[in-house]
């Protein structure tokens, strides 16, 4: 059928081809993959073949309410109360709808490898795809980028640029394109690059890789005066305060994406004096609460509840370049404890090495205890070995070649248009980087019974052993058209190994097939940090979203790594930032509880090193789950016990 289409396009000419494509775009911003036979379900769509005789038993996720479709043409009943809390709509992003786009051309996944210069390995596919896509939109490319987790300033976007060595930083070459270097570290740069010049990146001298620098993610679950965390009473922290242990003399650094309204809480739910510094490019220290993001403020509140006399240092960040600078600032200020409730993806193999491990090592050299969130990806993560049963270069999951977003009971979520999907995939080929795989985000139209690859930024980097490449794919797409099913699949482009994969879709929906194990975010897998899981503050039971270990084996392999998390602490707690009706949830909330308790212990034992402080915290834990340290709770539940004066 592809040959016939090519002949037709040749006969009709380029102008008519664009007209036909324009009609398709108007109907849904999608180009379907051609069927190889007349069957309603092609080989690529076998994931939808029902296990039972009932063709469609679907849990439908609507934006306003939750619906349950009982059959292909059956009636709809509203308010399905049996759905667990995580199925509710938690984040509503600004929508960029199909009708607002006017594309001149849409490129299917099969054609993209040729059209978008796949052989150019110096530009990662998310940038390469966008550079081509932006030329064909009727709206501002800047507006499109702002829908995704990228940093945009005026008419530039922040890129991560890799170079051959520190001596070959292409400053002059970058400046020729109007680009500005923001930060430098270990052969990498963060660079403000003009959006309308992204297609010229391959002409910049000295580059080995260039990719969008995605923002780190707050480790907060999808739903969200004088407010005190309920854990203060549970931990019996007041008894420590009564004995004079209030965190006095202890300095705690808090790394986060924003500290909205922190000034209004000073002297109440925060210390009267708080030290702040903003490391986000293009912002000043006065902009630390610019966007109203209260996530970091809530973390600071919890620490202040537990250790009211500790000094707090607030560092606003957006990416790993900023985090490195924040740590350097903490060191210069004599900070003894770092608390970070954020996560990142595809910076390392998941084995405790890589970019963040180097940053943590700097803090560890200065005797700083680093406490970090495990992440909230236990249900937004899949892990496994590549298996191509059909011999068509597509991975076979248990139920087919597509892993749809769904509750895990064989049904799928019906997802409305205008929602952003952010996905990350890595595999265990960090040394050679010659096993090439692509990540495809797909859409299934129930009425037309067709599977389509979405237009997406990224997912098709080349891995052929060239310096600077990584065995990773980052893919960004928008849901389009009528409500439909969405999922992902893994395509082998070149390779012959049984590689081990981790796939994440942070802050979206859960996958039908999930892997709770090995679901730790970057930074949480590092041995030197104290990684924190989440427990409900009332029931003391593990939260279903809380990421679990173990870490990956060396190089991201399937072999067992080491046990993470290290401790489990409390979520669903009261803070002033989130109000009295909402609760601060996620491993984000659990982490500052550990940092606050650490401050009390350090106050009582001021000679402790960072390692000794970590050891004391683990020794105090109440064992949960399997006897000893396990991959769900670590050493167990955070516990203070009695305050013993030395």
Stretches where pLDDT falls below 50 for ≥5 residues?
1-120, 221-226
Q: How much helicity do the residues have?
A: 10-25%
Number of strands: 29
How far apart are the termini? Answer: 81 Å
Mean pLDDT: 78
Strand order across the biggest sheet?
12-13-11-14-16-26-27
Question: What's this entry about, in short?
Answer:
The chain is an alpha+beta fold and 646 residues long.
What this model shows, in words?
20% of the residues lie in helices and 23% in strands. It is of the alpha+beta class and 646 residues long. Strands 12-13-11-14-16-26-27 form a seven-stranded parallel beta sheet, sandwiched between helices. Strands 1-21-20-24-18 form a five-stranded antiparallel beta sheet. Strands 5, 6, 7, 8 and 9 form a five-stranded antiparallel beta sheet that branches. Helix 9 links the parallel strand 12 and strand 13. 51% of the residues are buried. Residues 1-120 and 221-226 have low confidence and may be disordered.
Helix-strand layout with pairing:
Layout: H1 2-26, E1 31-32, E2 58-61, E3 66-69, E4 76-78, H2 109-115, H3 125-134, H4 141-145, E5 152-153, E6 156-163, H5 171-175, E7 180-185, E8 188-194, E9 207-212, E10 217-218, H6 231-234, H7 237-242, E11 251-256, H8 262-265, E12 275-278, H9 295-306, E13 311-316, H10 320-333, E14 337-340, E15 342-343, H11 355-365, E16 369-373, E17 381-385, E18 403-404, E19 420-427, E20 436-445, E21 450-453, E22 456-458, E23 472-478, E24 485-494, E25 500-504, E26 530-536, E27 567-571, E28 573-575, E29 579-584, H12 587-604, H13 610-620
Parallel strand pairs: 11-13, 11-14, 12-13, 14-16, 16-26, 26-27
Antiparallel strand pairs: 1-21, 2-3, 3-4, 5-6, 6-8, 6-9, 7-8, 10-15, 17-25, 18-24, 19-23, 19-25, 20-21, 20-24, 22-23, 28-29
Helix pairs in contact: 9-12, 10-11, 12-13
